[in-house]
Design brief:
Blueprint (H helix, E strand, L loop, with lengths): L2 H17 L6 H23 L7 H19 L2 H25 L4 H20 L7 E2 L2 E2 L6 E2 L16 H24 L1 H11 L1 H6 L4 H27 L1 E2 L6 H14 L5 H17 L2 H7 L7 H15 L4 H10 L12 H5 L5 H4 L5
Antiparallel strand pairs: 1-2, 3-4
Helix pairs in contact: 1-6, 2-6, 2-9, 2-10, 2-11, 3-4, 3-5, 3-9, 4-9, 6-7, 6-9, 7-9, 10-11, 10-13
Length: 357
């Protein structure tokens, strides 16, 4: 990224960050920002690395639990904050190394990651007994872990970061992670990663260690997901095994497809919009309109949205809007061989390797 692109991104993000609290509740905005970071992690791994991970919730939930357990046992929130990034990254690196060096195909890779999430979900649901204790923290089973220390201003444990301050902190972290990911994609590592997505065999024949780079990308995605789980834990102030659940795992895939795989901003927008839609569908006023037999369940609505996007907008929302805005208007085609004809040419391999927003 150039300095001009970074400045433009920061200015737009600052405008959005300060404008949103005027229209939405800050607690919901904090949750949506955590969802956006989670979607960014899968958007990077799947959209640019070509690694379809159905188990991104494993790292998301692990980050939340690592933060809560560390904060309870140490009384220090910031140690839990950094461990919530490091532990999921290490777990993703170990899991990724076993899968990629084991040369699993894409289908089996997706199945393995989903099974890992379901194992963690099943295990955490059965830790309600008193024997399931780590230090001073009880795992709580399906009831989860409530009442853990939340983030505070460094050096002042009594000055908690909550409400609007937590929203601003989460949004800033989201923007920094977005800029870091774009920088990484613009680096030689990122360009090789995109090349892997396009033609893995060709990259391997060029002498690059394909498996090591895919493992590193998978670990980076795990770190982002773990950070998202930590931020969600601070917003909700309670964590449950549902963070590992199949429902959320499916929602993340839908966020990325709706927003647009192959972009970074697309999955983030998809997560925020669908997260807000899920919140609206869960409002009591909406439930009262349809009575007890409410047909507008979030799962059903998300399924319909997914089908519609696959049929009519298979590339997702952001790429489709970008193509529509870049389409030459009538009367401006410039005739045969003019600008209109050149603008409709197919993108070259070099252009496809360029990181999109």
């Amino acid at each position: 990224m150039t300095a001009r692109q970074v400045l433009f991104s920061v200015v737009i993000a600052a405008i959005v960050m300060f404008a949103l609290p005027a229209f939405f509740d800050v607690l919901n905005l904090t949750t949506f920002a955590a969802y956006a970071l989670l979607a960014l992690s899968l958007g990077f791994v799947w959209g640019y690395g070509g690694i379809l991970c159905f188990g991104q919730t494993a790292f998301y939930g692990l980050g939340a639990y690592v933060y809560a357990l560390t904060a309870i046992n140490t009384g220090e929130a910031w140690s839990g904050f950094f461990l919530a990034i490091i532990i999921p990254a290490l777990f993703a690196a170990i899991l990724g190394a076993m899968m990629f060096y084991g040369r699993l195909s894409d289908v089996y890779l997706a199945v393995v990651t989903l099974v890992v999430s379901l194992i963690l979900f099943r295990f955490m649901n059965h830790t309600a007994g008193e024997q399931w204790v780590i230090g001073e923290a009880r795992l709580g089973g399906f009831n989860g872990i409530p009442g853990f220390p939340t983030l505070h201003i460094p050096g002042d444990p009594e000055a908690y970061i909550y409400d609007e301050n937590l929203y601003y902190f989460t949004f800033v972290v989201l923007v920094l992670c977005y800029l870091l990911t774009r920088w990484l994609l613009g680096s030689p590592f990122g360009r090789i990663l995109v090349g892997l997505r396009e033609n893995e065999q060709r990259i391997e024949l060029l002498g690059y260690d394909v498996r090591a780079r895919k493992t590193a990308a998978f670990a980076f995605g795990g770190a982002l997901a773990g950070l998202a789980g930590c931020l969600y834990a601070n917003a909700a102030e309670i964590i449950t095994p549902e963070l590992f659940g199949l429902g959320l795992a499916a929602e993340i895939i839908i966020w990325v497809i709706v927003g647009g795989a192959g972009t970074l901003i697309g999955p983030m927008i998809g997560a925020a919009l669908l997260g807000y839609l899920k919140f609206v569908l869960g409002l009591r006023a909406v439930k009262e309109i349809f009575g007890r037999e409410n047909p507008l369940e979030a799962t059903l609505v998300f399924g319909i949205i997914l089908i519609l996007f696959i049929l009519f907008l298979p590339r997702g929302m952001v790429p489709s809007i970008r193509d529509w805005l870049g389409r030459p208007r009538a009367g401006r085609s410039g005739g045969r061989g003019g600008p209109g004809r050149s603008s409709r040419r197919r993108r070259t391999h070099a252009e496809r390797a360029r990181p999109d927003a």
